[in-house]
Amino acid sequence: MDIILYAVPGFLVLILVELLAEKVRGTDYYRVNDSITSLATGVLSQLMKIVHLMIPVAVYVVVFENYAIFSLGQSALIYLIAFVLYDFCYYWNHRLGHEMNLLWAAHVIHHSSEEYNLTTALRQTSSSVLSFVFYLPLALLGFDPVVVVTVGAFNLIYQYWVHTRHIGKLGWFENFFITPSNHRVHHAQNGVYIDRNYGGVFILWDRLFNSFQEELEDQPVIFGIRGAVASWNPLWVNFQVYSQLAKDCWHTKNLWHKLTIWFRKTGWRPPDVVDAYPLHKTDLNDFQKYHTVLTKAQKIYSITQHILHSGIALGLLLNLSSVAVEWQVVTILFVIFASFSTGAFMEAKSYATMLEVSKHAALLLLMLVFAPSPTLWFLILPIAISSLIYLALAPHATKPV
Fold it and tell me: Coil, strand or helix: which one is 177?
């Protein structure tokens, strides 16, 4: 059972609560385009688990069954110990994810939003295939795969609530656990805050290994990354840093640098490439968020489309065992294309309307071929038809800022 999947309704309820707090307090922590991008990357991340989760689990099982030093059961005490040790492994996984180019390329997605709200928590990577290595010590110690997967899910669920600006410091709790305050520090691009507070549940590891930084009243957090992604395209958000590393690898004339750039410290670039292809870094003294203006109708359309894509993805994930492999592939490809298309719409790309019309046509065609239940027709058909009417009568006119 995927505990994360069943936690999604709770995540959505808390987002609604935070939106209510936003309304009551008059804050401006949400933008439709940014939030949809965060949610879309989260959906794609869940779908990609179908593709790449099998290998890490298989490797863990092999190590556990053949090389475990101890034979541990599944008692409450074992789960508690595993929960603490898992967070210790998570700390090092997370820390190296900030300190090595290749690992940062996978993790940067989570930091790419220039907002900080509960949708940011769901902005997860689709390409993290090496993280499992950090948890193999648990297999050697004899922790059952079921135990590790379970505590790992609860570790991730805990991290959800700390992605908010509506909760201040929490007194003594700050000394032992990750809180909204010290996790806001982790998402900052201010020099004083960069690469701090890596823990998932416990802040103790950061205090122990000298990576803790308190949130300072005289240093308001500026969220995001210095090499801003400047896009609502969830595919580009996922592969921006990989693309840059590949370009640097291609352009450098030094063979050793071609081989090692992936494993060097985050941000390192070959000297000959730095001179020939300089990169723009955000000026924090004159910081402006990437934004595109959406009319009210365009916001409603974008939200509706995301609900449509997410509903299709959720339907697949909840019925995975009964869906043929070829339809799994088709559904995943459709959701990827649909998410890309909505991102293009929110960016005012010239080809956005064409993509959106193609998306709806493909959806209707797939429904005819797949012959879904009348209930599915009842839910999807009105959305598709109304969306096509909107595109025909009021084509997108967003303006990048």
Answer: strand
CA–CA distance, 111 with 223 (Å, rounded to integer): 8
What are the DSSP E strand ranges found in 288-375? 292-293
The token duo for 234 is 């969830």
Residue 346 contacts residue 77 (beta carbons within 8 Å): no
Task: Give the phi and the psi of residue 95 in degrees, each rounded to 5.
Answer: -65, -45
Nearest residue to 103 via CA among 279, 280, 245: 245
Residues 6+ apart with CB under 8 A from 389: none
Q: Is the dihedral of CA 235, 277, 401, 225 positive or negative?
A: positive
Res. 397 pLDDT band, cuts 50 70 90: very low
pTM given for the model: 0.92
pLDDT digit string (tens) for 43-69? 999 999 887 777 788 899 999 999 999
Q: Give the DSSP H/E element, type plus range, for residue 400.
A: strand 399-400
Tokens coding 9: 């309704």
| Residue from 153, 179, 3, 24 nearest 90 by CA | 153
Q: Is residue 186 a contact partner of residue 39, using CB atoms and an 8 Å limit?
A: no
Close Cβ partners of 225 (under 8 Å, ≥ 6 residues apart): 108, 111, 112, 189, 282
